Amino acid sequence: MTMLYDEALDRFEPVLGLETHVELGTKSKMFCGCKTAFGAPPNTQVCPTCLAFPGALPVANAMAIESTIRIGLALNCSIAEWCRFARKNYFYPDMPKNYQISQYDEPLCFDGYIDVEVNGETVRIEIERVHLEEDTGKSTHVGGATGRIHGADYSIVDYNRAGIPLVEIVTKPIPGTDRLAPEVAKAYVTELREIMRSLGVSDVRMEEGSLRCDVNVSLMPRGSSEWGTRTETKNVNSLRSVERAVRSEIERQAGVLAAGGKITQETRHFHEDSGTTTSGRSKEEAQDYRYFPEPDLVPIAPDPAWVAELKAALPELPSVRRKRLQAEWGLSDLDMQAMHNADAFDLVEATVAAGAPPADARKWWMGELARRANESGTSLAELPITPAQIARVTELVASGALNDKLAREVLEGVLAGEGTPDEVVEKRGLRIVNDEGELSAIIDKVLADNADAVEKVRSGKIAAAGALVGGVMRASKGKADAARARQLILDKLGVSE
Amino acid sequence: MSAITRDEVAHLARLSRLALTDDELDHYATQLDAIIESVAKVAEVAAEDVPPSSHALPLTNVFRADEVRPCLTPEQALSGAPAVEDDRFRVPRILGEEA
Predict the structure, then answer these.
(1) Which residue segments constitute the domains of chain B, with CATH numbers given?
(2) Is the confidence at residue A182, as pLDDT, over 60?
(3) Domains present along chain A, CATH in parentheses
(4) Which of A8, A216, A424, B64 could crosslink A413 through cysteines, CB 3.0-4.6 Å?
């Protein structure tokens, strides 16, 4: 029933829409003082307000308001001069109030955009709105065959997460991405995650649910300008899944449409194992939520002077920073992409700040250290070595005290907990042999042991000197300066290059 | 003037997961009509110089600092729950079998 991706794209054009939820990293919940730690035992972070006990009233968390405005500013949004919370009424036990405090037609931030890079092209994603709401509790469905809500015997609910501030970021429909739709969706969520990190407003861990993405997809036949019916896919819990969910939904919808069928407007669930989506509940209409202004919370009217201050104090945003670093370091797009994927910008920048030349800083982090991180299954940032230590190693190489091979041994020692680079050099005796007498003695022995090679060099086959240099490096356990050794060998044999 | 139809009451009842008989639907339609008519009287006194309002107090920006306050214990939190399992609130089946 599904259609292969290439054929689907030959016949249809996709229109995307992305709704992203970000749990803010505030210390306390949105409307009460409960803790917000992830993974706490069930119902240990609850109080009369977030459990909706009669008479308990909400009061908005100032930090959550500030963080939401900062997010809006970072996404180039306008900030509402006056707006209200709204009640979203629905009958479902994940909110004990039977409604969720959200925002409806008066979002705190609106009309923004971000630019993302896909295959060297810049794609502008327009932001419709950024609003603030409260997260819901976590239900576990018990009984039935699948552990899903359908067919379950009953459900059990933990309200620790209920009331944690949740920011919803909604894009405008994104047409024109064509075959790149899955990549654009992934690039957008990746960029959002980095912006949130740079703002320090959330830990944005998809695997822990502090960043969640709903993917809207519709198709229209090539040449048509009328958008098709969209579906909303939930449960997309990794960046890779964002890409796969878009692709899978394009293939499925194309199959349905090509067979003369109709797309139903519905919520679908993404399945990590199969990479496909299945139908969920059909969506209630907006009017069914009976939104109305939240009577228990007074309106928000951010002082424009305060908003201007927040804007002026925004950190350098990731896209701006990447452009600056690329220019400063003179790196290619490919180098930048590799560093981006390895999450190496902070480390390399700190290493450069500690005095290392950018090319060396990048070489060590993206080469030897990336290899070791890969081997031990950790990230670069988790390696037990600091940017200042890498800078010191590059300094030792530049001064001629170490060569690259010895430097790798120093790094190995530091990673093994043997101390600072200088201590490792000392303990392992890794300093290059600079003593001409010592080097000369090693060379004499190597020349004496390799009469054949010596003869070849004397007769003009200078390439054979390589074997002699190799012998010196072996005899010195890698501590000789290879170029200096080569020069001394040629001098001793009375030949010049 | 009957603003509320029986179908609308039935829809509302479904959203609220209430099972109502036909007699009850008619009964509540009449009652809801009366409520809406009463509320509509507000519109009669609304004048150009009276802006619509949702809140009784002329206040904005009432916030609290982001500070943690003591929570309930799970025992306290669950003490009024009709059913409990694994320190969680146990609730009846939410949705029926998949169609």
Answers:
(1) 1-49 (1.10.20.60)
(2) yes
(3) 5-310 (no CATH), 316-428 (no CATH), 436-493 (1.10.10.410)
(4) A424
